[in-house]
Amino acid sequence: MSDDTRAATPAANDDQIYVPAAGESQLTVRAVLTGCALGAVIASMNIYFGLRTGWSIGGSLIAAILGFAVWNTLRTFFGVRPYSVLETNITQTAGSAAGSMTSTAGLLAAIPALGLLGVDLSYFELTLWALAVAYLGVFFAVPLRNQMVVVEKLRFPTGTATANTIVSMFANGAEALAQARALLGMGIAAGALTLLAYFVPVVGHLPGAWFGIAGLWGFSLLISPLMTGAGILIGPRIGASLLAGAIVSWGIVGPYVGRQGWVAGDDASIMSYATGPRGWILWPGVAIMVADALTQLALSWKTILATFRRRGASAEALGMEDASESVPNSWWLTGLALGSTATVLVSWYVFDIPPWMSVIAIAMSSVLAMIAVRSTGETDINPIGGMGKVTQLVFGGITTAQGQVAAQAMTTNLMAAGITGAGASQAGDMMQDLKTGRMLGASPRKQVIAQCVGITAGILVCVPIYMLFKTAGEADPNFAIGTSTNVPAPAAQAWKAMAEVLSKGFDAMPTNAIWGVVAGGVFGILMAIANKSVSPRTRRFMPSGLAFGIAFIVPAYYSIAMFLGSMLLVVWHRMSPKHCAVFAIAVASGLIAGEGLMGVVTAILTLFGIQGG
After folding, report:
1. Is 602 helix (H, G, I), strand (E, B) or coil?
2. Mean of all residue pLDDT scores within the chain
3. Alpha-carbon distance 226 to 203, whole Å?
4. Nearest CA to 430 among 107, 145, 108?
5. Band of the pLDDT at 122, cuts 50, 70, 90?
């Protein structure tokens, strides 16, 4: 072979852990539909989970495991054509895209925050918004793939774990089927317990008086599969941070605020945002979350700088795919142009945001999405909240300079940040999937198609599910989004508080809450610096500022339940490390899915007037 021939032959993809067979099935109808169906389940689950905890969970691993299990079972009993590794990759791509639409469409933060401010969106308006912003992140991510996945080979931990899981499943199908059975079994049990608790509440929430802690606000034992599963996923560090935050906020600060008379209510109105201590401790909690997010962003200046620095290696020298499998520039340029135009028009039509402001928000979103993608690649953390806060700060200045009235300024502030959050959310998810595909020798072009189809399926599911919860909350105050203990919407509370301060000034806060903001801000900054300064080995013993702040916003019993779930993980790992490693994610996902999906059922029961106990 001549030197010229060798130079023209692409180098091997040294990230690749699987070599596809010639003509292996990939973008098939069954792979895409399976991913969309599983993504619909994940999206429904994430609505309930996110409105209760402020977080959402990724769907890649769930979709990959269940997709493989479904088709392997059908093959065993009905002799259908074997499912391939690359089909499983398409399934997880479409599934994670659909599942992430709850975050991308702002249904956990910006949209419920608007609702708390009295802005009521129709189903049509919400669907328009979701369709407009949903695809921006995909087209932000595509041109970044070569640099971050191929050239720099960032790890993207979830994407890497998904690729290894898929290869392991095909090497050991019995283990994958056992994981799927564990997930489904836990889901059924969690759903049954949730339905029983709906009709007999004491089953799901044991009073504090039973444990001698009746005098402590909100300190009781919540028997929640969802919170237990969340505790297993977040682990002991985050679980302990939540418990510590609950003790400080609900056990110390809240009672002190009540005794000082800084809020109008009494012990009977503890949970009232308007008159109770809950409305006071919200502010230091938000300050901790915002300060932690922005400080982490500032401390990641090397990551930010690296985002805009080109590396010298050529794509051809790094094992690039054949041109017929890469994503044409015309695709992402056209998609970005159409998505940007739709976002500008819908923001103007639905939220009365001037087009030039939307253009600024999209431009910011493109830059912040790059930072979010790199953060995801290096740490597996997509800082959607931090990206949104940056945009809120910028638009706080813009709307003040423009002299917008407070109500419109808050709407502009939230939805501009919503554009940024959408870009960061979907770009991070797309890049995780592209990392998985790179490791499996998949076609990026086919993955982008699957991602777009999955996004569409997610919109068709998550918007009506959100509207269902919204309508159920209007029928029963116990399920009102953001004002009830059942659906506290902590992320929305943080976004709303930020918008209020930036538009109304500090007069929007309760008496002396400014000092809570100062203390919370200082604590959040110090926690971010401390976590960045210590070694990774020591960091696991450091509190999480974000989790500590969230505990100020959600009722204490949520934090306790998640802490206990994280302790179950610790005990399980010590008793059987191998068993825990194989089944922990499946068990946790089943618990979350079971209660999350049954939450949809109970919302429907509420609408039909079938009230619980």
Report:
1. helix
2. 85
3. 15
4. 145
5. very high
Q: Which residues of 447-467 are buried (b: 16+ CB within 10 A; e: fewer)?
A: bbbbbbbbbbbbbbbbbebbb
> What distance in Å separates the CA atoms of residue 86 and residue 287, rounded to the nearest whole number?
45
Show the tokens assigned to 97.
Answer: 């895209």
Cα–Cα distance measured from residue 532 to residue 526, given in angstroms and rounded to the nearest whole number: 10
Q: What is the mean pLDDT of residues 506-514?
A: 78
| Global pTM exceeds 0.90 | no
Backbone angles phi and psi of 175, in degrees to 5: -65, -40
Give the CB-side neighbour count of residue 534, counting CA atoms within 13 A: 13
* Residue 216 CA neighbour count, 13 Å, CB half: 21
Helix (H, G, I), strand (E, B) or coil at 221: strand
The per-residue pLDDT for 127 is 96
The total of other beta-carbon atoms located within 10 Å of residue 468's CB is 18
What is residue 383's predicted lDDT score, i.e. its pLDDT? 67
- 3-class state of residue 203 by DSSP: helix
CA distances from 187 to 41, 260, 494, 587, 612 (A): 12, 46, 31, 8, 21
Q: What average pLDDT score do residues 394-418 get? A: 88
User: Which two tokens mark 567?
Assistant: 């302790």
Joined together, the tokens standing for residue 287 give 């300050």
* Ranges 139-153, 375-389, 549-563, 573-587: which has the least confidence: 375-389
CB-based contacts of 16: which residues, under 8 Å, 6+ apart? 319, 438, 439, 440, 441
Q: What is the mean pLDDT of residues 221-247?
A: 88
Look at residue 24 and give its three-state secondary structure: coil
- Residues 200-218 pLDDT 10s: 888 887 776 666 555 556 6
64 in Cβ contact with 88 (< 8 Å): yes
74 against 379, higher pLDDT = 74
DSSP letter at 28 equals -
CA 422/CA 604 separation, integer angstroms: 28
Are 103 and 56 within 8 A, CB to CB?
yes
- Which residues 6+ apart lie within 8 Å of 93 measured at CB? 35, 433, 436, 437, 447, 450, 451, 454
CA distance linking residue 474 with residue 484, whole number of Å: 11
Longest dimension (CA), the chain: 86
The answer to whether residue 449 scores a pLDDT higher than 90 is: yes
CB 123 within 8 A of CB 400: no
Q: Model confidence at 10, in pLDDT bands (50, 70, 90)?
A: very low
pLDDT score, position 36: 97
Amino acid letter, residue 504: K
- The residues near 537 (Cβ < 8 Å, ≥ 6 apart) are none
Classify the C-alpha dihedral 485-491-492-496 as positive or negative: positive
**H-helix segments, 380-443:** 384-402, 406-440
In the chain, how many H helices and how many E strands? Answer: 26, 2
Q: Who has greater pLDDT, 268 or 132?
A: 132
